[in-house]
Amino acid sequence: MNVLMIGTGDIAYSHGRAVVKLGGKVFACYDVNEAGMKRYQAEFGSEMLRYEQLEDYIPSADYVVLCTPPTKRLDYVEMVLKHHIPLYMEKPIATNLEDARKIKEMEQKYDGTIIVGFAHRYRPAFQKMVELVRSGALGDPVNVFDNRVGPGYGFRGTWFAPSWRTDPRFACGFTIESISHEWNLLTALCGEFETLSANVWCTIDTLPTYDTNFSATMKIKKGGVATINASWSSDLGGNFKGYIGTKGTAFLRGRDMFEFEELTYKTADMAEPVTIHYNDSYKHNQDGVIFPIHQHFQDCLKNGTPICTPLDEGIKVLKLSTLALESSREHKEIILDERM
Fold this sequence. Notes:
It is a single chain. By secondary structure, the chain is α/β, with parallel strands linked by helices. It has two domains: 2-112, Rossmann fold (3-Layer(aba) Sandwich); 120-338, Dihydrodipicolinate Reductase, domain 2. The chain is built from ten helices and 15 strands. A nine-stranded mixed beta sheet has the order 14-13-12-11-7-10-9-8-15. A six-stranded parallel beta sheet has the order 3-2-1-4-5-6, sandwiched between helices. Helix 6 (124-134) runs parallel beside helix 8 (179-190). The longest helix has 20 residues, at 311-330. The chain is globular, with a radius of gyration of 20 Å. The relative contact order is 0.15.
């Protein structure tokens, strides 16, 4: 497939390599940073575009990948959708619900096709965990959790200047930018929530609106409880996701924030637990993590099958993150049926 790339930062390289691995080409690219765009062009041979050229090139794409900061999306989204070209949009889809509403209106107006880039949802280890849960082997949820910690953006001043995440012009905070993954993964395991109570904390004195730590407790609609504990302030990394059910338990572990290395499960009728080992590292193989979502999207486009993480999923997790910030700010539990 021929793909047009809008935004040529670090993640765009993994997107481009996935396209090439699938037999396609990034035929054109655009970025406001011309030096960055030239580096991207050097690897992929993409034609470098000016902003005013985008409308002429978008109709030639099989799909467009949008990797700009989430505060800079609306005009690009409309450019793509009005030409009825499918769109891969990095998460979060926006930093506020008003922009999310506008994107949804565009999708409906142009009968658009959008996938949101929750790449971790498509990783083999997590897919196996979801398969175990949905088979019924582990039973109904009792306690479902997601713990993810490590040295993240802004940690002790590191990675501060180069990233849009901590640039005051674009920053949206850990809860909106990154906890979107946790909402997506947890609801894939246990379904939707009834209530939400959260606390957030910032550890960057120079950017006090930028939260870097997050904790939340939820009631699950079908029963049981769920928790998230996440930090970008830890000297040590770790990733531990679990589903404790009425018939069995599954744990997914990794030694860094986004590593999926070991899935262990045991049901009531098993004498011993089973452990499956994965060489699935976002830190050391970002390209390998991004590849499966492009493979899924291309399969959906070719076969007309449903997208696993459509725009509505991006809107849902943005609502949950926004309500979590409200819960922390106002020291209250949120009844989600009244707000979602």
